[in-house]
Amino acid sequence: MRTLTLLLCLAQLWGCRSVPVGTALAYREPNCDDPETEQAALAAVDYINNRVLRGYKHILNQIDKVRVWLRRPMGEVFELEIDTLETTCHVLDPTPLANCTVRQLTEHAVEGDCDLRVLKQDGQFSVLFAKCDSSPDSAEDVLRLCPDCPLLAPLNDTKVVHAVDVALTAFNAQSNGSYFQLVEISRAQFVPLPQSTYVEFAVAATDCAAKDVTDPAKCNLLAEKQYGFCKATLTEKVGGEDVAVTCTVFQTQPQPGDAVADPAVPAPSPANLPADPLLVGPVVVALPEAPLPGHRAHYDLRHAFAGVASVESASGEAFHVGKAPKVVQPNVAVAAGPLVHPCPGRIRYFKV
Predict the structure, then answer these.
(1) Per-residue pLDDT at 3
(2) Cβ atoms 3, 302 nearer than 8 A
(3) Which of 3, 79, 234, 255 is the least buried, fewest Cβ under 10 Å from its Cβ?
(4) What is the distance between the alpha carbons of residues 205 and 224, in angstroms, rounded to a whole number?
(5) H-type helices in 52-202, by residue range?
(6) Which PANTHER family is this protein grouped with (predicted)?
(7) Is the pLDDT of residue 220 over 90?
(8) DSSP string for residues in 200-255
(9) Are residues 129 and 43 in the same domain?
(10) Same domain flag for 197 and 54
(11) What pLDDT is recorded for position 11?
(12) pLDDT, tens digit, for every residue of 254-264?
């Protein structure tokens, strides 16, 4: 009996020794402005813009934090926190992001804040997880910088809705082509002097000719979607109102199935599309029918990501946080004390 007990104890001790100590995955913390980190962040921004169905394209402003984890059996996962800024390009606009203008502080800028995980495998980046929100600059900051600058107005305000209706009616009355229907009101501001309402809105062409429309309800969107983007100002005056509207109509965009893209499949990067924006537009999906929160002044990025993608590795091992090793740059003497990493990175435009 003693011999059997001794053998059992030895077996247990051997089993304990066979379990490696500290099996948690370790991460490294590269420079936030490292070229590889920036590549991962730019891939993330492309992913965001390809999945935003309303509002405006966003552009990278700053990388706040980065951790890089080994992913079994191969590849690395970049865990990123980034700040973005809203541009003046609507998401339906085929203009490449690099050619889009960043909306300035005096125009009541909007900032995005995103947490992402980006997989690098075989030199390619793909997004595993994305969580974003966005918010306009505070009214106090805008007025401190520019006391006379108009602030963002609620998109469902009766004056805003009226201005868009008048502007779209005026545009269709001047059109010799298709009758256009409203897709969304994208932005609005109340201008004090002269007292007016400024609006930006997206439209879509229908199968009706503008000059022949008698009942807009009978008009249907084209099978191959054709979108446009309008800017208008409705000015109040004694005895009436004046409207000035300009619209840019984009080239027809084929819509296979008009289905929302699978969020688990990375969308094609604009870098892989032909360079000429007049010929090919971005991949556009059907706009959701669910109403967005009322009394909002901008489209919050949080509405673009309804679910969370899996971040499990190909081996089935879940991606998880481990203990960080000390990061030492080669041939550089390391002083005693905690290592300070060069994050957050540089601000590319301005801080909101």
Answers:
(1) 56
(2) no
(3) 3
(4) 10
(5) 139-145, 158-174
(6) ALPHA-2-HS-GLYCOPROTEIN (PTHR13814:SF6), FETUIN (PTHR13814)
(7) yes
(8) EEEEEEEEEEGGG-S-GGG--B-SSB-EEEEEEEEEEETTEEEEEEEEEEPPPB--
(9) yes
(10) no
(11) 54
(12) 654 444 343 33
